[in-house]
Amino acid sequence: MALTYGDISAVTVNYISDEFIDNYYKVSPTFVKVWKSGSMAKPYPGGLQIQVPFQYAPLKASPFPPGGTFDIGYVETQTAMTFNPKFYYANVTVQGTQLPINRGEAAVMNFLEPKVVNAEQALAQSMITGFFADGQGTVTPLIALDGILAGYDDGTNYASYGGITRSAIASGASAGINGYYFGNVTGSPLAGASWPFSLQQLQVAFGQATFGPNQPNFIATTQSIYNSFWAKMLPMQRTYEIDPDLQGAGFRAFKFNGMSVVVDQYCPSGYVFGMNTDYIDAYVSDDPRFSFGFTGFKELPNSVDMAGQTLFGGNVVVTAPRLGFILANVV
């Protein structure tokens, strides 16, 4: 029978690097922009729902002749979208019997520390996936974030948003609580045929979502579409910058019509999302546990094992869907 250890291995231990490497999680500048920079995050202090009032109709106004009378009939001009708070968790389970092994000089590093970091990354991954989805039961379940796939739709794929039927407010792209959605060059957004990325179509989408000084200011897309985008820009037009909200994380972006364009590895394939980040509210519970907090480890019943969770409570609200756009089925 072959021996497990030889002359050298019997008296020599492995050298273990003190640097722990992540070879799994992807990178999301959008997550940093939404939840970590502080400019988009808003406190959620509690309540059954998050209610967002908005104006949807004009008051009466017209010319009048001398001696004429005014139409003083009452006009309803305001309503509100409502959103349920959503909750996310990432779990860390520890076998109690691992603790007396991972200690002393034999423990190069505490094995719990990367586990807790992993939980934070897993939570972020789940949330940014939900951010780019719908939370309407089509792409992600109703308990998931109300993502921008539904928020910036024009009513083609999601007839309602925030508890309101879109057509009850206005019909057509970039009107009322409709965003701008373009699915392919045939003009039918429902058709699934893919189409090559076009700066002209991007400009059309940008124009649709522009209302004076209010316009999209942030584009997230995939690496392949970003490569096409980059190649179509003339060298003199490729203006790179460090987005102030992303600077601390080291992300770079180039500019198109004043919009920061970034690669987000969690952006779904075939999509370009144009956002106005001034009109996206990322609500985060002010309960410390549900504000990316950690519950602490709790012993499991009849066991020496324990588990703890990193938690989030809140939701994402696109308060002005007409200021953003979605390009889908792009290659």
Q: Which structural class best describes the helix and strand composition?
A: alpha+beta
Order of helices and strands: HEEEEHHEEHEHEHEEEEEEEEE
**Can you tell me the CATH class?**
Alpha Beta
State the distance separating the first and last CA atoms. Answer: 59 Å
What about the largest sheet?
Answer: 7 strands, mixed
Low-confidence spans: pLDDT under 50, at least 5 residues?
none
Shape: elongated
Count of extended strands = 17
Radius of gyration: 25 Å
Number of helices: 6
Mean pLDDT, nearest integer? Answer: 91
* Helical fraction: 10-25%
Characterize the quaternary organization of these chains. single chain
Enter the CATH topology name.
phage-related protein like fold
How would you write the strand order of the largest sheet? 7-17-12-8-11-10-9
In the CATH hierarchy, the architecture is: Alpha-Beta Complex
Percent of sequence in beta strands: 15-25%
Number of domains: 1
Q: Can you characterise this structure?
A:
With 331 residues, the chain is α+β, with helices and mostly antiparallel strands. It has one domain: phage-related protein like fold. 17% of the residues lie in helices and 24% in strands. The protein has six helices and 17 strands. It has helices spanning 29-36, 112-131, 148-151, 166-169, 199-208, 223-232; strands at 41-44, 50-55, 78-83, 86-94, 160-161, 164-165, 180-182, 218-221, 239-241, 253-256, 259-263, 272-275, 280-285, 291-294, 298-299, 306-318, 325-327. The strands form four sheets. A seven-stranded mixed beta sheet has the order 7-17-12-8-11-10-9. Strands 1, 4, 13, 14, 15 and 16 form a six-stranded mixed beta sheet that branches. Strands 2-3 form a two-stranded antiparallel ribbon. The longest helix has 20 residues, at 112-131. The termini are far apart. The model has no long low-confidence stretch (mean pLDDT 91).
